[in-house]
Amino acid sequence: MMARSRFAVALLVAVVVGAATSCSASDTQPSEATSTAAPATSAGPAVLTPVVADVVAAPIPVTGSDGLVHLAYELRLTNTGSQPATIASFQVTGDGRTLVDLSGDALTPWFQALGGGPKTGPVLAPGQEGLVWIDATVSSPHDVPGSLGHVLTVDFPQATSLVPARLTENVANTKVDNREAVRIRSPLDGPRWLDGTGCCTVSAHRAAVLPINGEMLAAERFAIDFVQLDEQGRIYVGDKTQLSSYRYYGAPVRAVADGTVIAVVGDLPEAVPGANPEGLTLPEYGGNHVVQDIGNGRFAFYAHLQPGSVDDISVGQDLRAGDQVGLLGNSGNTDAPHLHFHVMDGPDFLAANGVPFEFDSFQLDARVAGDSVDSAATAGAPVVDEPGTQTGERTGAMPLNLDVVTFPGG
Ligand SMILES: [Zn+2]
User: Fold this and answer.
1) Which residues contact 313 (CB under 8 A, 6 or more apart)?
2) Residue 186 C-alpha to ligand 1 middle, in angstroms?
3) How far is the CA of 158 from the centre of ligand 1 (A)?
4) What is the whole-number distance in angstroms between the Cα of residue 134 and the centre of ligand 1?
5) Separation of 316 CA from ligand 1 center, angstroms?
6) C-alpha of residue 273 to centroid of ligand 1, in Å
7) How far apart are CA 240 and CA 380, in angstroms?
8) How far is the CA of 400 from the centre of ligand 1 (A)?
């Protein structure tokens, strides 16, 4: 299922929205002929594979609040052929196991053709590119495969002498990145913080695979928008266009690790809650923000902070874990006060790839229904818990989309 919660939209929403082509192979019966392309690493005979693929970035495993180890990454597909290509099924394999197996309607939420237009299913027009978002899970770190394979079953309207009407392709064999998710403290204190648009469904953050500086990058891959629910499970009480209606507005935002500040912006105005501001330039999307080098090629990004709340922070300053970075605000591309937090592999908050992180400790209080978050954000209704969630203490884990968590302190 694709969570719809978008109470506080991603820093940048995907420019890849929209979809496929009006061309359709749906009225064409696939032939029985099936051929299997050789894996790139195989010495087998060459096979024509009209759909080629690569990964945006190799996955780094991360333990989620569900206890599973997630490999969250994206596969970029290119239909090099002259016929539309319908992705009939998609599998991810690792060490002989099938980790993801999607076909038909189940694949649609995880697929997006580039270039706009209505979403009509996993179809690539001739020459078109698309993305498949992947959330492969295994039960423990010991079960993480060393490499991953991807199997596409692709349907074409017409068989040719080179390509059958149904083709099974092996594409984009990829090594798992063996770096560990960085272990950090939480950027907020206290109870009932809702993880909006977090990993690992195709949330607005994960969907934001963006063409930046000449390549496709996903800085927000693991980003979380945090809002704090009140005792009744509400995001705001009263007029939703008033900052004061959001009781957590102004909550202290804390450094997640020791590290040096490498960027600070603090003079952008607050936006009016209820809608995203228009006309922002790209650098303004993060609003008032701090970027902190937390070591080993990782950078923490704290965004949408209150104007003036970072006046005591300067580039070159060394922060200790737990130091106040600023105050939770509503500057930049935001429709309600929240903290946008992510960790990335470079100093620029968009020209980087998002990397996973695990918080030292938190309590999982609940997981809530995505529809109820929409109502909470737009109508002030309380969120609704999903039944069956295994709540309780977590150590060394990343909250997942729609989790409600209590952090130490506060
Ligand atoms: Zn965000």
Assistant:
1) 261, 264, 266, 290, 319, 325, 326
2) 16
3) 44
4) 20
5) 25
6) 15
7) 8
8) 14
Cβ pair 195, 7 in contact under 8 A: no
Q: How far is the CA of 163 from the centre of ligand 1 (A)?
A: 43
pLDDT confidence of residue 121: 86
Tell me: the pLDDT tens digits for 93-118? 999 899 999 998 999 999 999 987 66
Element (H, E) at 403: strand 403-407
Cα–Cα distance between 169 and 156 in angstroms, integer?
13
What local confidence, expressed as pLDDT, does residue 45 receive?
A: 86
Q: Please tell me the distance between residue 220's alpha carbon and the centre of ligand 1 in angstroms.
A: 8
Tens of pLDDT, residues 376-403: 999 999 999 999 999 999 999 999 999 9
> Ligand 1 mean position to 20 CA, how many Å?
26
pLDDT tens for each residue of 244-269: 999 999 999 999 999 999 999 999 99
Q: How far is the CA of 8 from the centre of ligand 1 (A)?
A: 7
CA of 336 relative to ligand 1 center, distance in Å: 11
SS3 content of the chain, % helix, strand, coil (to 5): 5, 40, 55
Domains of the chain: 51-175 (2.60.40), 182-407 (2.70.70.10)
pLDDT tens, residue by residue, 283-297: 999 999 999 999 999
User: What does the pLDDT read at residue 43?
Assistant: 57
Give the global pTM. 0.90
Please spell the DSSP secondary structure of 97-141, one letter per residue: EEEEEEEGGGTGGGEEETT-S---SSEE-TT-EEEEEEEEEESSG
Q: Which tokens belong to 241? A: 């266009």
Q: 35 CA to middle of ligand 1, Å?
A: 43
For residue 218, give every residue at least 6 positions away whose Cβ sits within 8 Å of its Cβ, in sequence order, or none: 56, 57, 74, 206, 208, 209, 210, 353, 354
Distance 226 CA to ligand 1 centre (A): 8
Ligand 1 centroid to 286 CA: how many Å?
9
